[in-house]
Amino acid sequence: MTLRNHFHTMIHLVFLCFCITTFSSLAADTISGNATLSGDQTIVSSGGNFELGFFTPGNSSKHYIGIWYKKVSKKTVVWVANRETPVSDKNSAQLKILEGNLVLLNESQTKIWSTDTNSTASDVVAVLLDDGNLVLRDGSESNSSISQPLWESFDNPADTWFARRKDCL
Ligand SMILES: *[C@@H]1O[C@H](CO)[C@@H](O)[C@H](O)[C@H]1NC(C)=O
Ligand SMILES: *[C@@H]1O[C@H](CO)[C@@H](O)[C@H](O)[C@H]1NC(C)=O
Ligand SMILES: *[C@@H]1O[C@H](CO)[C@@H](O)[C@H](O)[C@H]1NC(C)=O
Ligand SMILES: *[C@@H]1O[C@H](CO)[C@@H](O)[C@H](O)[C@H]1NC(C)=O
Ligand SMILES: *[C@@H]1O[C@H](CO)[C@@H](O)[C@H](O)[C@H]1NC(C)=O
């Protein structure tokens, strides 16, 4: 079995086995400036459809940054950021904006995942949209509907499990 298959199996287990946990929330849909997301903190899309934060599959001691449906009781993860590089301590790992990108720092503050854009924008924000898309934007652009995202999770389908949506509802 390849690692990828293995991961798919694991994600499938996530679909089947996850129960609701209570999460504290930043009560916002945006990570900006000096804000960091750690531990059980999450952001929620404006209409309350999707939530982003660390999740922990099954009995695993590994934690992943993911996006899941906020409104369905069985936790259904639709996108995973760091599937190759899970962290073992979500309280000291940090998801934050660094040098124009959204990055995940592990326990030793080493960058283990990044949106990896060549953006030179100094004021970048990450927003979780109500369709489940996580977008990275120039926060100084006041009209968000005309600013092209610098990066979006929908453009990273390798990390997306939307195809399995039917399994879950
Ligand atoms: C981030 O923190 C630094 C140092 O504390 C501060 O100078 C800067 O203004 C802060 N930026 C934002 C956007 O809050
Ligand atoms: C979790 O661990 C317990 C105790 O080790 C075990 O009985 C159970 O089957 C495990 N569940 C999963 C989903 O692996
Ligand atoms: C953080 O990531 C770096 C680079 O992959 C690794 O060398 C280090 O051991 C990691 N830290 C922990 C606590 O896992
Ligand atoms: C970023 O710049 C490097 C070097 O110029 C280039 O190879 C890479 O394709 C660029 N990445 C993106 C996402 O534009
Ligand atoms: C933003 O741009 C769109 C498209 O040009 C326009 O329809 C909308 O009215 C603008 N919104 C604001 C707040 O300026």
UniProtKB/TrEMBL annotation:
Q: Which residues form a coiled coil?
A: none
Q: Which keywords does the record carry?
A: Glycoprotein, Kinase, Signal, Transferase
- The residues the entry assigns to the signal sequence are 1-27
Alphabetical list of InterPro entries matching this protein: Bulb-type_lectin_dom, Bulb-type_lectin_dom_sf
Entry's Gene Ontology molecular function annotations: kinase activity
Please indicate which superkingdom the organism of origin belongs to. Answer: Eukaryota
What residues does the Bulb-type lectin domain cover? 28-149
Q: Which PROSITE patterns match?
A: BULB_LECTIN
* SUPFAM superfamilies with a match to the protein in the record: alpha-D-mannose-specific plant lectins (SSF51110)
Gene3D superfamilies per the UniProt record, alphabetical: Bulb-type lectin domain (2.90.10.10)
This protein is called G-type lectin S-receptor-like serine/threonine-protein kinase
